[in-house]
Amino acid sequence: MSLGLPHIERVLGVEWSITSDAFKFRVQAKSNPLTRRGVLSTVASIYDPLGFIAPFVLLGKQILQQMCKDKVEWDQELPDYLKPQWESWIKDLPSLANMEIPRCFIPAEFGQVKSFELHHFADASVNGYDACTYLRIINKSDEVHCCLVMAKSRVTPTAVMTIPRLELSAAVVAVRVSDLLRAELEIPDITEFFWTDSTVVLGYINNDAKRFQVFVANRIQRIKSSTRPEQWAYIPSEQNPADYASRGLTAEQLKYSNWFKGPAFLWERNIPARDMKVGEVKENDPELRKAFVCTTNAKEEQTILNKFEKFSEWSRLIRALATLRRKVKECKGDKQRTKESTSLEERKETELFVIKLVQEKAFAEEIKSLKSNKPVSKTKNHHLYKLSPFLDEDGVLRVGGRLSQAVLHSHVKHPAILPKDSHVSTLLIRHFHSKVQHQGRGMTLNELRANGWWILGNSRAVSSYIFNCVKCRKYRRRTETQSMGDLPADRTEPTPPFTYVGMDCFGPIYVKDGRKELKRYGLILTCLCSRAIHIEVVDDLSTDAFLNAIRAFIAIRGNVRQLRCDRGTNFIGAQRELADLMKDMNQEKVKALGCEFLMNPPSASHMGGVWERQIRTIRSVLSAILDQSAKRLDSTSLRTFLYEVMAIINSRPLTIEHLSDPTGPEPLTPNHILTMKSTIIQPPPGDFMKEDLYLQKRWRRVQYLANEFWIRWRKEYLLNLQPRQKWNAHRRDLKINDIVLLQEDAAPRNEWKLAKVTDVYPGTDDKVRKVRLLVSEKTYDKHGKHVTKTLSLERPIHKVIVLLEAD
């Protein structure tokens, strides 16, 4: 205890002068550094739970908030433009010791109190918003006393807000203070008044017709939950004491203001008539929620059956309808109110109610005939006629059939009849299909009939549902197919050998180099026109090894116009490296002499069948040769053997037209054109006849033989490519936004990932055989936490399974 103030005690953190029975403030500012951390420490050291000096503290909070807005670091010095404000505020702190706030609300010798009133004032500005509450007391002699009870002030949020929203937030603070004081003061029959200088807020509170945005609507609801609109009134800003705490006051200004006593009109014997001054909520008010008017077709019949389509499960439909029927009975007084869930009997009654609704709409004429003791017409509904239908005691149409003598439950012997095109039928099929764990059509049908349901055309209805069932598609549906595409122009154009090439690598092949056993690989290049092959040996599957092999191939076979391949890393690296080299070259020359890469999508080996088939042929020939060598080949011997394999394969017949005819022409093979290959880019010009064989001009003899090859190539080989060996049927094309399952050969089916089609690539016949997918994948970040990232993948349709069509 200080020597200058010997009679001051600290009660619950608040300093209390015992002699004067008043609250005082002795703030001894520590020499904190002029940093953000030091400012926060000084401002937080002022303990004022009742908000007596809220206008003064607001100035310090504003300085701290400005530092936060400017992103000043915790230990960074105070900016120069804030130093004068802070120094002035610190210098003013000791002046708070001159203020005293009486502890007692009722002065001594005031007499018996006649009434108590609480007056709450709310205000907001661009600097802050607050609420302050005054207790007004009137004694038997109509004398008035008024004092500050509690105040709360806050700086405005860093996010920009409109003044009406800030005023509304201040009103909410006033309501919360009111709830607190009512509970703590425990004064019976206390009257409360609320004051604000915002006519917009008064308009919001008194509005009952218009809907507002979420921010405003939630705060109006909070205000109306504790107060009534007639409790609120307007007060001019110059008379509103809350204006002090929303703008801030120095200690000197606070001492000589009416902050502690309240406005002058509260001290009058009779308060002047309160001005409601409710502002009108304009149509262009940004806080108004826009209303959407939906027009409906009045001619369309709206029955309860239409509402059933909002349900996707049979059990949910029955529970919801059973609850609704119970509520109707409770409102009519036929049943006592209860919060228990629906009983089994209520759900059974609801099932009968639903069945009768569906049957009355689908079989109206048949039910009318049966009620008149007339049989069902055979011509109008022969499917129903075969079931010998009848109406049971509940008026439900059931199957008559031939099992009346069977020892079965009556509903199993005589199941209820439903139409196949009803939504209720679909719900039942879905319910029992899930119950048998998505088994086939037969088990679903058996489960339906075993539970007392007979759907007309049930086999087709169940099959149609299973075909569209997403889980069944996930478990059992095959990957997508499309009709085989047309051959590209490079397969049908008579060009010099190896102008259009398909390529791939195969291996590894093990060779001996001294005592070492090394791996070697083969690079096969297939002419897409003549089906000739060329083989090069590569040391590994790197980009450098591939580029060396392709340069050796071009040096032997000539320039290549187009290369088709899969997406091997060495092929992608070579394409990227060649593209970088050609950037600075003459683009017209590059276009005339350059080689174009065409790559198939990943996991689409069937799109490279023209060279994949040749790899199989190579393996069959190579296996026989390597079997004799017993793995004693070195690199040189392997290259020789591969050339022998190449010669053997290039001598194979392309057609079998004249294989069995000894008098026919020699079978057409790739070597017919390879051994006569010239440096001419296009096929030989002019027409050559058989007589040219006997001329002494050798070039005409060679050109005649070349022409003869291409004529036979068109007649004997090219026309054999006409029929489609498989994938003959046209299927639905995949579309953007289809949901698919991506096949992964290395994972079990239940771990295949879901994907969404984001782009499609139609072929020349407008059929989609390649798509781009958006796939989500769970990985781990550097901290070991699960992170979900999205990948964009290009895949053939043969690797996806459609689960949900976009249309």
Description:
This protein is α+β, with helices and mostly antiparallel strands and 807 residues long. Helix content is 36%, strand content 19%. The strands form six sheets. Strands 7-6-5-8-9 form a five-stranded mixed sheet. A five-stranded mixed sheet has the order 16-15-14-17-18. Strands 22-21-20-19-23 form a five-stranded antiparallel sheet, covered by helices on one side. The N terminus is likely disordered.
Poorly predicted residue ranges: 1-6, 677-685, 691-699
The percent range for strand residues is 15-25%
Mean pLDDT: 82
CA-atom Rg in angstroms? 46 Å
Q: What characteristic shape results from the CA principal axes? A: flat
What is the makeup of the main sheet? 5 strands, mixed
Q: How many strand elements?
A: 23
Distance between the termini: 82 Å
**How many helices?**
26
- Which strand order spans the largest sheet, edge to edge or round the barrel? 7-6-5-8-9
Structural class: alpha+beta
Approximate helicity band:
25-40%
Key features?
5-stranded mixed β-sheet, 26 helices, 36% helix, 23 strands, 807 residues, alpha+beta
Topology:
Layout: E1 8-11, E2 14-17, E3 22-24, H1 36-44, H2 54-69, H3 83-92, E4 100-102, E5 113-124, E6 128-139, E7 144-155, H4 163-185, E8 191-196, H5 199-205, H6 214-226, E9 232-234, H7 242-247, H8 251-255, H9 304-308, H10 314-332, H11 344-362, H12 364-371, H13 382-385, E10 390-391, E11 397-398, H14 410-413, E12 416-418, H15 423-435, H16 441-450, E13 453-455, H17 458-468, H18 470-476, H19 489-492, E14 500-513, E15 516-527, E16 533-538, H20 543-557, E17 562-565, H21 569-581, H22 587-593, E18 596-599, H23 609-629, H24 635-650, H25 671-674, H26 698-717, E19 739-742, E20 753-762, E21 768-780, E22 786-796, E23 800-804
Parallel strand pairs: 5-8, 8-9, 12-13, 14-17, 17-18
Antiparallel strand pairs: 1-2, 2-3, 3-4, 5-6, 6-7, 10-11, 14-15, 15-16, 19-20, 19-23, 20-21, 21-22
